[in-house]
Amino acid sequence: MTQFDLPLERPADPRDTEFLVSDSNARVIQQLEHWGSWPVLAALLVGPRKSGRTLLARIFAAKTGGQMIDDAERVKETEIFHAWNRAQAEHRPLLIVADAAPPEWEIKLPDLRSRMAASQVLRIGPPDDALIPSLLKLHFDRRLILPSPELIAWLEKRVERDHVALIRVADALEGEVHRNRRAKLSINRARAALHAAGLLVESRKDV
Q1: Is 24 helix (H, G, I), strand (E, B) or coil?
Q2: Tell me, which fold does domain 2-123 have in CATH?
Q3: Which CATH class is domain 131-196?
Q4: 80-97 pLDDT tens trace
Q5: What residues contact 171, with CB distance under 8 A and at least 6 apart?
Q6: Which among 53, 116, 129, 200 is least buried, having the fewest CB atoms inside 10 angstroms?
């Protein structure tokens, strides 16, 4: 597992710069590192919520001196249109972050639709088998949870393959830790807490 770092002054929490890389997002990293080969100096970054897409866009803007637009569906289309044109005129890359690419993202402004059609689409996938345990460890570390050595392996077979679901799992287990005032978690305690929260799924592998 590798990590893509943010080249800024040290934040209040250094973990706010952590973007974990696996096969589910490695292609996006490669495309961002070779932004000079984009068809135009603008690209659309799409992916699941809580997948780190905003952090990745911040990292990209900091490294390249370019610009990012987050939650593009909630931004005025004329603002995105002018930012797209400015990126080409100033030769500075623009990364537009959205839930989905057109036509799923319905753009009303014809001139913006044509510009987005010319822009490269970069896609972050759902977390894969390599990323899930690393994300669980990251979420647990942020919540000061101490899982038993077997718990991570047990969880990765029984949690939803989804970034938001992994955060909800960590939140539920944090609640269990606070209720019992014991930071170390066993499989039995985790099973009970996640079953009560409706967060367990059938094992994806034989146990």
Answers
A1: coil
A2: Rossmann fold (3.40.50)
A3: mainly alpha
A4: 999 999 999 999 999 999
A5: 143
A6: 129
